[in-house]
Amino acid sequence: MSTENLTTCWEKLDRLGAEVSKNLNLRKAFADDPARFDRFHVTQDDLFIDYSKNLITDDVMAALRELAKTANVESWRERMFAGDRINVTENRAVLHTALRNLDGNPVMVDGKDVMPDIKDVLVRMKRFAARVHTGDWKGHTGKAITDIVNIGIGGSDLGPVMVNEALRPYHVDGIRCHFVSNVDGAHIVDTLKNLDAETTLFIIASKTFTTDETLTNAYSARDWLVGLLKDEGAVAKHFVAVSTALDKVAEFGIDTDNAFGFWDWVGGRYSLWSAIGLPIILAVGYEKFEELLRGAQAMDNHFRSAPLDRNIPVTLALIGVWYRNVLGASSQAILPYDQHLSRLPAYLQQADMESNGKSVTRDGKPIYYETGPIIWGEPGTNGQHAFYQLIHQGTELIPVDFIVAANALHPLSNHHDKLVANCFAQAEALMRGKTEAEVRDELAGGNLSPAEIDVLAPQKVFAGNKPSTMILYKQLDPFTLGRLVAMYEHKIFVQGIIWNVNSYDQWGVELGKQLAKELLPMVQGNETADARDASTAGLINQLHALRG
Asked: Among 261, 290, 319, which residue terminates a domain?
């Protein structure tokens, strides 16, 4: 990567940014250029990405693609798929793509094809889920399993939770899935209070079987089960593990035959495709899980082969870089118009912010430009009655991804038509706005005096020129969900390459955990906090005062 050539790319983008900020009006751009929509969209089968309502021009997109080429995005992409150790700080390959390589082409890591091991785990999960679904797997008292409780945190929770909710219409009858992540005891207590120990199966998801929050919840669940069933031997019938630490799994009381492993080249936030997806299989069945994998694989193939100008993840990534680094947007809103995608924004928060929230380059040098944006959002139409006010009339530039299906998976077509109409309307409203002249014309038809109109008119003006991307597809099935998640994964990858950061480590999560271990004896009253800073010591002393 030539630093000089990169500087030239950024200088060109900065010049274009100044021009766009001064001259581009989206309402006028559409009026002057009827072909804008035809030119600024990209597709993969039924997946349709309209990016014409963004603050971009042909010159901007050409310059962004030149930036991608100069940053060697294409060669880094091949290195990832080839199993190179692109996670440089942990000296690991990055191969979540191999987990959905259902065609079985060899994927080599250190000279070994990893596909046989991947297929073996998939087969084991398929067989296990079938035993649960048929009732062949029975609890300690001989009753079939009706409830699954997944205990994990971070990537061991967010992905399965999101997919479980997204695929709710496909859930297997007779199986209910629950998820516990927070070390706050209320989470495990509230989850267990309405469950029957005889028919509940726990999945403990921790690669090392040492994650403090997960193990705290796991032992509380173990105590609950043993306390009700009065037999330590019941643990083996009601607990399985997603872990590679077989010694610790056995020590807990889990039969190691019921431990499902994954590999160090699978990052936590990219792990739902692995054994971490076991609760997904139990929720929707192996066949639907495989469709999820095939959807992700389809996006992998598209990302790997499509030219930059027709490549969905690359296009989304470049537009995001444009807003973050040239136009100064600090956040990105993810707004799915689908209640079943209610957990997608939270999932993408981790995927994006844990990946690209970095302040040093891959080789450890300080960064003096902006990297990962703040990711946030909620489903429409709820958000319209909450934070859309700020997007429409606030002072922040907030690019938006709208996500919507053409067809609902429920019979209430009038509901879905209204949902889609609202989604399209919000994108149009953000783009076109409402001028003061239009407001005054509208108010003039009422009973307001000229003076009242003068007061009210500025309040009802919408500046418009607010950017958005529309992501439209036929329906939210497992295949499409797989495509959507993989699309965002690859978007994050491209942006990480352009920003020259390692998107696959997360050292920033460690310090707080370390300090929590130090503070725990002080919180428990077993050690003094006098040596801590005045605020921390003061808070601990106040805590004990409140506890009496």
From this structure: 290
Provide the domain limits for residue 350. Answer: 3-70+306-432+467-505
Single out the residue of 262, 205, 225, 211 nearest to residue 147, CA to CA: 225
Please give the tally of structural domains in the chain. Answer: 3
- Cα gap 311→302, rounded to integer Å: 7
Catalytic residues: 354, 385, 513
Where among 260, 290, 320 does a domain terminate? 290
What is the per-residue DSSP string for 311-363? -HHHHHHHHHHIIIIIS---EEEEEES-GGGTTHHHHHHIIIIIHH--SB-TT
Does residue 213 form part of some domain? Answer: yes
Show the tokens assigned to 371: 């990297």
Non-local (6+) Cβ contacts of 4 within 8 A are none
> Based on C-alpha coordinates, what's the Rg of the chain?
26
Angstrom distance (rounded) from CA 442 to CA 79: 58
| H helix or E strand, kind and range, residue 514 | helix 510-523
Give the pLDDT score at 1: 58
Q: Are residues 197 and 337 in the same domain?
A: no
* Domain shared by 55 and 126, yes or no: no
Phi-psi map region of 91: left, alpha, beta (phi>0 left; psi -120 to 50 alpha): left
Distance CA 374, CA 35 (A): 33
In a domain, 453, yes or no: no
**Inter-axis angle of helices 212-229 and 510-523, nearest 10:** 50
pLDDT mean by block of 10 residues, the chain; 548 residues: 88 98 98 97 98 98 98 97 95 96 90 95 97 97 98 96 98 97 98 97 95 97 98 97 95 96 93 97 98 98 97 98 98 98 98 97 96 97 96 98 97 96 98 97 92 97 98 98 98 98 95 96 97 97 96
Residues 32 and 138 reside in one and the same domain: no
* Contact between residue 49 and residue 43 where contact means Cβ atoms under 8 Å apart: yes
Tokens of 76: 């880094």
The Cα 141–Cα 132 span in angstroms is 15
According to DSSP H, which parts of 87-232 are helical? 115-134, 155-166, 185-192, 212-229
Element (H, E) at 247: helix 246-252
CA angle centred on 342, ends 130 and 506, rounded to 5°:
85
pLDDT of residue 3: 85
Tokens representing 237 are: 């019938």
User: Could you tell me the end-to-end alpha-carbon distance of the chain, in angstroms, rounded to an integer?
Assistant: 62
The overall pTM is greater than 0.90:
yes
